[in-house]
Design brief:
mainly alpha, MetI-like fold, 13 helices, cell membrane, flat
Length: about 290
């Protein structure tokens, strides 16, 4: 006997729901429990309250990593969206050899963050990278040694990350632009509205769902950024480009501080919830009111 459609849909969702509950929410709960214990190399269920969180907040490296996360997150997210949207506009305007440009912009997306980090480590190395190449052309005073400068190293992560992910932003923005009603452009030409004003005042607000999707996707990449840091800067010089994900992995695997690492991981989750959740709620509420 065939099940009703509604029941069949719920039955089909059981495997995915079970995997999500076990592999996501159950591990979040387990991480929080471990963060309340004195665990070091292995889990040790000797509960010490919020001692690990006190240790975490007293660690200067953690606050340095959080500061770097804020800088990297803003630069990476805004940079990817702005550059990707600009490239999408250029392609949408009917540039020649569109397929070639789309392939070029999407190519870095096929690389892992490890490969991206290694490539940019070569490019930004003062000894044989971009700086050495420009000086070889006769510009002896040219300097681009951000990779070894504590006050600039964090910006190199944003540069490499934007280079890799801008193709994704370009593709999604281009899809949004191609979905715009052509009659809007016809009406704008009849009214004599400049192209830049159409994009700024009409098209861009229409693409809010696209930007919303990009913010969520890019924010998740920022929070779990680890391999790019390891490959490009190693968190250095010192801890100048350290990020929370590397802090957590380093304390769990290298320093045998499982409890402290779990506390850091749970605080990363809280940071995501505190920053992204209000934005998601605002966008969904606005869409619901508009509907």
């Amino acid at each position: 006997m065939a099940l009703p459609t509604a029941v069949s849909a719920y039955v089909a969702l059981i495997p995915a729901t079970t995997i999500t509950l076990v592999c996501f929410y159950a591990f979040i709960a387990w991480t929080f429990v471990i963060s309340l214990t004195r665990s070091r190399l292995l889990p040790r269920y000797e509960f010490v309250g919020f001692l690990q969180y006190e240790r975490l907040f007293d660690t200067a490296r953690w606050w340095q990593a959080m500061q770097n996360l804020a800088i990297h997150g803003v630069l990476f997210t805004v940079g990817c969206i702005v550059v990707g949207y600009f490239l999408a506009i250029l392609i949408d305007r009917g540039v020649k050899a569109e397929g070639v440009f789309r392939t070029i912009f999407m190519l870095p997306l096929s690389m892992s963050f490890i490969v991206t980090g290694i490539i940019w480590q070569w490019l930004l190395n003062p000894s044989f990278g971009l700086q050495a190449a420009v000086r070889g052309l006769g510009f002896e005073e040219f300097a681009f040694n951000w990779l070894v400068r504590p006050d600039r190293a964090i910006f190199t992560l944003a540069i490499a990350g934007i280079w890799q992910q801008v193709g994704l932003c370009m593709a999604l923005c281009l899809a949004g632009l191609r979905g715009v009603d052509p009659n809007i452009w016809k009406a704008a030409r009849v009214d004599g509205i400049p192209v830049w004003r159409v994009y700024a005042n009409i098209i861009t607000p229409m693409l809010r769902p696209v930007f919303f999707t990009l913010v969520v996707l890019l924010s998740s990449l920022v929070m779990k950024a680890f391999d790019l840091v390891v490959a490009l800067t190693g968190g250095g010089p010192g801890f100048a480009s350290d990020l929370p994900a590397r802090f957590v992995v380093d304390h769990i695997l290298n320093r045998q501080e499982l409890g402290l690492g779990a506390a850091g991981a749970f605080m990363m989750l809280c940071t995501v919830a505190a920053v992204v959740a209000p934005y998601i709620y605002y966008e969904l509420s606005k869409a619901r009111r508009a509907g």
